[in-house]
Description:
Number of helices: 18
Radius of gyration: 35 Å
Strand order of the largest sheet: 17-16-21-20-19-18
CATH architecture of the largest domain: 2-Layer Sandwich
Number of strands: 28
CATH class of the largest domain: Alpha Beta
Strand content: 25-35%
Helix content: 25-40%
Amino acid sequence: MSTAFLSSEALTYALQAVLASGGARESFLLYHDGGGTVQLGPAGVRRLSGDWGAGLDEWLPLSGVPLPLLHAGQTVGLLWTAPGESLAAPAAEALADLLARVSAAPDPWSADQLAGYSALIDRDGRLRAATPAWLSLFGLAGEAIGQPLGDLRTEWRLLEQALPGVLAGRAFTVPAGWAAVPAGAPAQFGSELRPWPVAGSELAVLFSVWEANAALRVAASPTAAAPTPGLDSTVFRALFDSAAHAQWLVTGKGTVVEVNAAAAALEAGDSAVSMLGELVWSVGVWRGHEAVRRQVRAAALRAGRGEAAETVLELETGPPWQLRARPLTAGHALLELAPLSHEPQDLERRLALLDILLAYSSEGVVVTDARGRPLMLSGTVRKMMMPGAQDSAARDWARHFELRSVGGEVLAPAQFPGTRALRGEEVRDEEVLVVSEQGSRPMSMSAYVLPSDLGVAVLTRDLSEKRRLLSYLSQVTRRDPLTELPNRQAFMDRIETALEERRHDPECRYAVLLCELGNLDDLSARIGPNLSHRLWLDCAARFRDVFRGSDLVARFEQGQFAALLARPGGPAGLERILDRLRGSFSAPFTVGEETFVPELRVGLVPDLGAQPSAQAVLFAAAQAIRALPERVPAGD
Length: 636
């Protein structure tokens, strides 16, 4: 088959055609493409959020059969077959062959598509790919991939302001001097940020650098970091002057150095000029508001120490403002002021409508303000977190429940998911405990910052039911469905634990007994399945009666039982156990009209001390199996 890649539309059509021809109506595929995980069924396609390992429990229904699709020994996708549906092997092979083309598709973030001095930045401001020449130019290594742009070089925090405009489709060109190459030959470098398609409709930012003087073709030294523009460079001036929001450049001690046009527009007359050289919290729109001035002072000094800060300023009149303070260099910080809402009445109407919708929503949603304080709770959240107080106001949440970490520590408001998201942290599927008068409930929370500084939406999921189901499934899959005794896997896990105990404490003794009941296959065929079930239940009851409460009895395949004996008591203790076993199975079994005595064969491992693994223990027991004589010698 040709190795040419199919277009996404052609691939979707081909996969759906194969599913439909196989009779699938509700069955679907899960696979990766360049943009993440895709769920594809006969009637539609949707993209899923989350990684493959953590998402399968959530994506796959409890009923149905999941089947990994393999191609050349590699898993290329997963086929979930709905109950009552089945796909023939040729259809599964065709799906695997098609999905192999997806897995072989080029990485959309690969540096192979780049040339010269260029790099790719994602919409979160992280460096995703770069050419070796670009990394060497700025004195960076491969470890820089995945890091935020502003963390790699302090001056690049200025460039982060331009990313939203570039992702909206506007290129940003900075032609001024970027680097001075070594060997005494100064070469001026220009730079450009422009949109770059990576996967489907997703855009990244292409960060390219070129020599402004083409006559100078001196390669940048791999060992020397190229100087970057300072606060007086064209980079800073272009971004600072064109910023949509008011900005102040201040020293580490809060003295105003520069004021941009948007900040000057907030001042009347010549007062913007008079701000230069003054402390930023003593001038500006907060003049005369003592409490607000203290907020500005704290944010400015914090940024001067190298820490980013954000706060909401509420003046006596007009809408609230959000102040962001970011460190730029060792001696300067940038303060930015943006209004939270220009239309308070319209915002109130929208919030009222949202409150009504959330009240009847089946999803768990908490909406906070720009400070992280809860404004609205969906009806589902009220039922889960505030039972018995569902009509209480959202601001009164602290009276009805508290948030704790998985370890049980009470979370301070600064540690809440919504508050952390406002600080720029990524909060996805984090587990917390919600503790109320009715007890504690494990929940998963993801926080998303709302646009226009409206606050945060926290999505919640109740994990208690999922855990109960997982616990139930774990118990079911580790027990024999007929006798409810532990199965082979559970027995081997317990042997591994016993071996670990033996390695830490040589005085800890265990023995393993493997028993086979012969002459039962022909009998089962004669008496039928119902009476066979009664026979095996009778056998299991006799085995349980033989062994002590501290011993573990398990059922393996049709004719095998096993026992892990804790502190068997040496040869004499083992002899007593074998005597009880011999006596129990010497009594005839009566099932229907059949009466018989089964042949009992036993394999014994008297001490686990010399065995390296559970598999080795069972192998040794199987090798030792023989018919149980009327009496076993004490040393056997």
